[in-house]
Amino acid sequence: MPFKPVSIRGTRREIGAALGKLARPIMEPYLDQSRTWQALRPWRGHSYLESLADTARLRLPAIWEELEGLAEGLRLPLDDVLLWHCRGDLLHKTTDGCTSIALRDAGGVRWIAHNEDGDPWLYGRCQLVDVQPDDAPGYVSFYYPGSLPGHTFAANRAGLVQTINNLRIRQRHAGVPRMLLARAVLDCATLPDALTLLRDAPRAGGFHHLLGSAHDQRLYSVEAAPAACSVLEIGRGYAHTNHLVHAGSTRQAQVVSDSSRARHDKAERALDVWGGMAQPSDLIALLHDDSGPLPILRRAPDDPDDENTLATACFRMDGGQVTLAVHDRQALPAQTIVL
């Protein structure tokens, strides 16, 4: 069955090794065709990369142990695996996109829906993983081969939901690589814990985190960038793509692609039309909208950002339970999981 979760259990190092072994058969051809990997290779051995490693080891020792295990499972040098995880911290433009929508319906049920957009080569080659560390709540996440989970869409067994949108920030700052910080959020038990982590950690790169919980009525949009971390509590509906939009955040230097701007505008217009009357099917229909030259559902071989939609997720949060439906470019889900 498509997107049937792969179960992984154990210590941090064992989990990393299992994730690496899962990706090992396709990692070499994946990197060989990746223009992002070509652009990263001049950074090998750079002192700035070592400073990012030092900060990650100090701030997130458990996540660093997973990274070490991942390198073992992939049979790749740890320095190269770290470099791959720092792609968004080092390069201003990578093949990571995404569109996220949050909605609170009239009954108080919270919804987060998300298109995971990435390297077109990865379509059909990604998986869901069900990960249970010995010392954390555990989570279900979309898994890019060779990258620790957390920077896509996921929910943990404490009821926390996170979706990530790439931000193309033109600033570099010594700190925790953004992908490792996103992974660390999945170890948090509550929304306040996640917000504290994102605010307090030094941030090397920029991500947008859309956060919700099965145990908390609040929804949050967090623009975590090197210069500042902006937190916005969401009202009834909200949309975010791949550029900073919070008041004050837009002063930071960033790359705003035509696709990101067009997807955000189209989603905002839909939210205005819906008001408080939207249904979950409306969220999926919006994320599967392929109309116009810069659609939300992206499957064109000549996409201007070199990205395609790899999967669509819809999370329902209510009554202490998270239900995740994963769609493969179809209205009906390919997989439904209750946490």
From TrEMBL:
Signal peptide: none annotated. InterPro entries: C45_proenzyme-like (IPR047794), Peptidase_C45 (IPR047801), Peptidase_C45_hydrolase (IPR005079). It holds the Pfam family AAT. It comes from the Bacteria. Residues 110-329 form the Peptidase C45 hydrolase domain. This is Peptidase C45.
